[in-house]
Amino acid sequence: MAESSAPPEPNQLLDQDPSPLVRPDAVLRWLKEGHERFLDGHSIHPHTTRERMRAVVEGQHPLAAVLGCADSRVPVELLFNSGFGDLFVVRNAGTMSTTAAIASLEYAVGHLDVSLVVVLGHEVHSSVLLTDRVRAGHLAVVAGYYDLHSSAIDWMGHVEPIRYPGPAQACISRRR
């Protein structure tokens, strides 16, 4: 992507890929493009003006939710070359999936309509150890949805790490 081209506004991206099945792929592409700009030294610092801050005062419509580490060396918005209102970021030491972190992510999915949740860990933290254990076949991670009205659990499938070509890129996908 050229240095001068701005990423689409969140609503534009959703209009381009409105299908719930396609939208997460479009959002992940958008995040990867932002990260590539960051890696190439071509960050364009989108959506970081005072006008953008004013535009999102009345409500937020982030593209994705990110559970990341509170480590000051891993600033999520900078790594993805995003700005005000683009990402719903939950940070804590070690990228721990605490009750508060999970509740925050549930809010992002249930009330802000994000279609992609990214867990972004880094070296020597629990999320990386979890991924290594899953890859080695020593741990299974399964997603489920509990229906409060019927008390039924919809078992949605195994969650497994997928390695993409390139340095330290991983994604978690849903498998039935």
| Proportion of beta-strand residues | 15-25%
User: What is the arithmetic mean of pLDDT?
Assistant: 75
Unreliable runs = 164-176
Coarse structural class: alpha/beta
Secondary structure tally: strands: 6
Helicity, in percent?
25-40%
* N-to-C order of helices and strands: HHHEHEHEHEEE
Assign an overall shape: globular
If helices are DSSP runs of H or I spanning 4 or more residues, what is the number of helices? 6
Task: Explain what you see.
By secondary structure, the chain is an alpha/beta fold. Residues 164-176 have low confidence and may be disordered. A hairpin with a 6-residue loop joins strand 5 (153-163) and strand 6. The chain contains six helices and six strands. The chain starts with 9 loop residues before the first helix and ends with a strand. It is 32% helix and 22% strand. The protein is globular and about 45 Å long. The strands form two sheets. The chain has a three-stranded parallel β-sheet. Strands 4-5-6 form a three-stranded antiparallel β-sheet.
